[in-house]
Amino acid sequence: MPIEHNIAVTSEPGDVDAMRSLLDGLLRGPKFDTVADMLASERPALAVGEIWEAAGFRYRVVESGEWKTTAGGAKLKVLPGSDGFSVLAFGAKGDYDYTSGVGTDDTSAIRSAIKAVMEAGGKLNFHNRQYRFTDTLNLSDAGYNNRSFGFFGDSGNYTRLWFDNIDPTKWAIALGEDVNYFKLVGIELMDRMPWASAGAMYFKDTRSSAGPSWKHLFNDVRITNWRVGARFDGGTLAGGADDTHLSEVMFLHSKCRNCKTGLIYANTQSVNHQLIGM
Fold first, then answer.
1. What does the radius of gyration of the chain's CA atoms come to, in whole angstroms?
2. How do residues 70-83 score in pLDDT, each as one tens digit?
3. From CA 261, how far away is CA 258, in angstroms rounded?
4. Three-state secondary structure string covering the chain
5. pLDDT tops 80 at residue 150
6. pLDDT mean over 198-218
7. Residue 132 pLDDT more than 90?
8. Residue 217 — left, alpha, or beta (φ > 0 → left; ψ -120 to 50 → alpha)?
9. Can you name the residues that pair with 255 across neighbouring β-strands?
10. What distance in Å separates the CA atoms of residue 213 and residue 207, rounded to the nearest whole number?
11. Per-residue pLDDT averaged across 181-204, rounded?
12. Dihedral sign of CA atoms 91, 94, 100, 105 in order
């Protein structure tokens, strides 16, 4: 049975502070050492809005739109920290050992994190680890709120995303036609089997979309072992009738290493693309 609290509150500062303290206490849920422990918990949620914690990350109990449901039926949504979202809060492990080829498949966790950051905007932090994913990370138009967002690592020397895939038709990262303001900073993208997949990043836009694909930034990014580093595609109609502007894309202090082709511009009117220290 829920507990009822009948409290008389005045506008006196002491009463207001007491109410804030009470509400904070009522909505403070359990703490867990790991995200896995939290998801395995059979403790039910006591109220919508209750805040749970695991491994230093915070989650809110919601009625719908949850990231995961615990064993006890609590529907949880990941909350961003002061510096944005962490991919670890969504269950990513970042434990890939490239020498042995052994490590967790973090595809599902990364996709969940992408969905959250594309809706809210801001940073998705990939901490100083090695992440393995096995299928395309689609940054699709659905759920995108036209806000600046991106993937941020600690350095292109230390934060790596390994694409463990041998399908020659698949790209590691693919952006929707109406997705703008994407940033990739301090990360190395690696094709685990050199030149096995289609390429690292794919951008497509046509005049039939809502607007040009623009204002993407790549800073301190290493693109290694790919058939194609990045491909920018326009339309396919004869005479370039649906070619589009792919505008204001900057590569800053980044590099394509051991790639058969670095950049491809196909049927695009590329405006203000800048390669500085590339």
1. 22
2. 999 999 999 999 99
3. 9
4. CCCCCCCCCCCCHHHHHHHHHHHHHHCEEEEECCHHHHHHCCCCCCCCCCEEEECCEEEEECCCCCCEECCCCCEEEECCECCEEEHHHHCCCCECECCCCECCECHHHHHHHHHHHHHHCEEEECCCCEEEECCCEEECCCCCCCCCEEEECCCCCCCEEEECCCCCCCEEEEECCCCCCEEEEEEEEEECCCCCCCEEEEEECCCCCCCCEECCEEEEEEEECCCEEEEEECCCCHHHCCCEEEECCEEECCEEECCCEEEEEECEEEECCEEECC
5. yes
6. 76
7. yes
8. beta
9. 222
10. 10
11. 94
12. positive
Residue 42 has pLDDT above 90, yes or no: yes
Unique residue bearing structure tokens 């405006």: 271
Residue 147 confidence (pLDDT): 81
The amino acid present at 257, given as its one-letter code, is: R
Tokens of 78: 């990941």
Cβ count near 147 (within 10 Å): 13
Q: Count the Cβ atoms, other than its own, within 10 Å of residue 27.
A: 15
